[in-house]
Amino acid sequence: MASGQLLRAEALACTGHRHACHVMLYSDTKSQLFGRIPIRHVVLMQVRFDGLLGFPGGLVDPSKETLEAGLTRELLEELGVAVPVSEEDHVESRLAPAVSAAPSNLITHFYVKKMEEEQIREVEKASASTAVDHGLEVMGMVRVPLFSTKRGGGLGFFLSHSFIGNARSQLINSLLRLHLLSAPELQCALRSSLKMHAQSAEDLKAALALC
Ligand SMILES: O=c1[nH]cnc2c1ncn2[C@@H]1O[C@H](COP(=O)(O)OP(=O)(O)O)[C@@H](O)[C@H]1O
Hints:
Blueprint: E1 5-6, H1 8-13, E2 18-28, E3 32-33, E4 37-38, E5 41-48, E6 53-54, E7 57-60, H2 67-79, E8 90-95, E9 106-114, H3 117-127, E10 138-143, H4 155-159, H5 167-177, H6 183-210
Parallel strand pairs: 2-9
Antiparallel strand pairs: 1-8, 2-5, 2-7, 3-4, 5-6, 5-10, 8-9
This protein binds inosine-5'-diphosphate (IDP).
């Protein structure tokens, strides 16, 4: 098993750990950007309160509720609509890397749920209207652009943003595992991200000089 990865049961047996559950909601779509670039799939992420990109979800206390019940409760707060998640949607559990000298005590559990495009639209509408976390813990839901434009835009530029924890690798692993994109398509997007990242560093230095 890959480093840090745990079976769901092993993860639940860890004492003294915090548990965070997040889900990637997605659907197929026939929509085309500019009437010619196939969008293929709708994948939802969110801009969090801290400005980072991540998946909807949150901390769950497994001594009080199941991981899936806790995730479903978090989703209601963040999305404003019931999206039941079950054990069958579970993809992986992993010990989060340590962020300081102290060992990590956070276990992240990741889920993937396929929906109809219409249900995704309902989630998007509710997340900006009835969700109690809107504008507070969640600044807004976003669709991941899965296409690539000639100049490396689309997925490449999206991946150059900053993500919370291992959310970027959760996204990339899911796109590969579900065959939503091929490995060469992802490699191409990631190369474009690296270039964009270097350019952003220069832009940031220039912006700092304005202050
Ligand atoms: O999308 C994600 N993928 C992987 N880990 C995440 C993601 N979002 C948050 N985390 C991790 O889980 C922890 C708790 O998540 P979150 O901030 O969503 O919970 P909360 O809203 O209940 O405080 C975060 O501090 C972060 O380390």
